[in-house]
Amino acid sequence: MNLLIKAEYRKVFTTKLWWALLIPAAVLSMAFTWGGALLGTLGDMDREVGGVLPLAIPAFGQGINFASVFGLILGGTAVTGEIRHKTITTSYLTGSTRGAVLAAKLFVYSTIGAVYGVVCMLCATLGAVFGDNLPNAADWFTLAGAGVVAMIMWTLLGVGVGALVGNQVGTTVGLIVYVLIVEPIISAVLRGNELGEIPPYLLNTSGGSMVTDLSLDLFFENLPGSSRRNERAYEELREFLNMTHSPQWWVSALIFIAWSVAIGLAGWLVARRRDIT
Amino acid sequence: MHDGSGRVVVQNLTKTFGQVLAVQNLSFTVEPGSVTGFLGPNGAGKTTTLRMLLGLVTPTAGHATINGRPFHHLGNPARVVGAVLEAQSFHPNRTARNHLRVYAAAIGMPDQRVEEVLHLVGLRDAAHRGVGGFSMGMRQRLALATALLGDPQVLVLDEPSNGLDPEGIVWLRTFLQGFARQGRTVLVSSHLLSEVEQTVEQVVILSRGQTMYYGPLDQLRKAQQSRVVVRPADAPRLTTALEEAGHTTIEQLPEGVLAVAGVEPEQVGDLALEAGVAIYGMHTQQADLEQIFFQLTSGQFSGAQLNPASPHFQQQLLHQQYQQPQYQQQQYQQQPPPGWPQQPPPQQPEQQQWQRPQDGGQQ
Ligand SMILES: Nc1ncnc2c1ncn2[C@@H]1O[C@H](COP(=O)(O)OP(=O)(O)OP(=O)(O)O)[C@@H](O)[C@H]1O
Ligand SMILES: [Mg+2]
């Protein structure tokens, strides 16, 4: 197993994809917090709310959600890239079992997801520092921690979907269509039928909310001024974002982790048996 | 773990892809110490069989073992079996050296081994280049280098000389023979008997997913007989004379020409002189192995498992082996194997196309 893990790292680091995807993810993370930080320090806002608006926090959350797309894409290529270039044959021929080869892949890509997460969080922090609006450090790092977990899970999810689908274009297009079209439609239909409690359990919603919810919670905690006024604004905002039924951020996190692990496992089971001709 | 015998056993292997019956109840054994050829025309099921042997395709029925164990029960399989497969490829942006380093890591070989195999296949000078820019022959060499990484006991190669230049082909032949002489096992597939004729001692001949012949190549050679083609002035009289002398396998060819099997031209001449029949022309005709291979695989025997020792087999060969090449070719085209588009071209053109004057890797 250790041998296969080492081989898998060599596979990743001997091609360019890993940094070609990491750069835009890191740049996005930094751009979001920097922009949020600058927006929060605009003079007019200061006067209105009686202090610096910690806008860097929700911007951070959004940045994580966008950046994790790159982890997802990287994960999606783990199995499909090998199928596309037909190196999967050699990989299976040099592993003790096919299950072991795939398990090594799931593990290695999860750790690369962690690297992506850490790099993106560092860039996001730098963005807030450059924008001169780094809020409460403890809160900030809680959010960064959640961001790393989200990035790992999105990457793992990508590996699982790629292993299930087996085709690189199919995986990428399938994921985009699902996230942008299928799930929003399902959610809208469910909400329209008084079943608003269900959408938070959906894949993309749970993955997005775990970060967004936390960032909103922390944003309102860090708002200057009266807490009662903030509370009303908080409720209104959640309603506006269709998040009335959203559970606590960590519940969303657990739901999303369950999704990623389940799909990773399913991919492992399916790819193990697929004929390589 | 495994018995270390170097023996490859295929037992009642069957594989269907949807409607397509790719391999049908296939059985054979490959022993160490010699090169075994795995022969059959396009679509015969060679690749499918080898992939089942290597655990890449799950058989519909039957099983295959190497050293007494299925591939994925060998522990670290690449240390026992090395394989060069047809549809094997490389990441175009990874260098040859990095490609080998990935798989050296996977099987626990030191990076030093990478340099050794690069040297062995003559790719050292191209090792730093992306495989995307490699020629067909260079890829084939890299695939062989990958197969040799684990210093395996058994080598399985699917059409390994595809794309190799003449020098590369000779090198590969010598290499495989040397490899087998060390007591190791080599199973090499090809759709051309002539390509492996000088290398292999044993053959498994496949047609439409079934074994047509399985045994020593020499035995197949012995089954062939020469015949004498003679143009006498009076064919019926010569026929009678020949038959009286006990030569009964006589074929009437157009324009009074006779083809007599199992005789020497001297005997025919003497008999003709005795019978007082003038002879206008006579020559000996030899059927070559390639023709036998053609007949075995052209589909007409499908369903019949032939044992070379049986008289039935001898007889069929006798009847079939003198057919003219044009006839064979036509027949082949009329009955393309399943899944093959019409008009399979003869094999030569693609070979020529891939022939390169020198190993393209040397700069
Ligand atoms: N994945 C697949 N799906 C459907 N049919 C397949 C598949 N793989 C192989 N076949 C069919 O199985 C049969 C045997 O194919 P195979 O590739 O094993 O032949 P082969 O002897 O290797 O031929 P060649 O000399 O062309 O390499 C063919 O009819 C082929 O069309
Ligand atoms: Mg083939």
Provide the domain count of chain B: 2
- Compute the separation of the termini of chain B in Å: 45 Å
Largest interface: A-B, 27 and 38 residues
Q: State the secondary-structure class of chain A.
A: mainly alpha
Major sheet attributes of chain A: none
Topology order of chain B in helix (H) and strand (E) letters: EEEHEEHHHEHEHEEHEHEEHEHHHH
C-alpha end-to-end distance of chain A: 25 Å
Query: Class by helix and strand content of chain B?
Result: alpha/beta
Helix percentage of chain B: 25-40%
- Number of helix segments of chain A? 11
Instruction: Identify low-pLDDT runs of chain A.
Output: none
Instruction: State the helicity of chain A in percent bands.
Output: over 70%
Query: How is the largest sheet of chain B built, in terms of strand order?
Result: 5-6-7-3-8-9
Total strands of chain B: the figure is 13
Ions, cofactors and other ligands present here are: adenosine-5'-triphosphate, magnesium ion
Oligomer: heterodimer
Count the beta strands of chain A. 0
Looking at CATH, which topology of the largest domain in chain B would you report?
Answer: Rossmann fold
Q: Indicate the mean pLDDT of chain A.
A: 89
Unreliable stretches of chain B: 300-363
Overall CATH architecture of the largest domain in chain B: 3-Layer(aba) Sandwich
Summarize the structure.
The complex is a heterodimer of chains A (277) and B (363). With 277 residues, chain A is an all-alpha fold. In chain A, 81% of the residues lie in helices and 0% in strands.
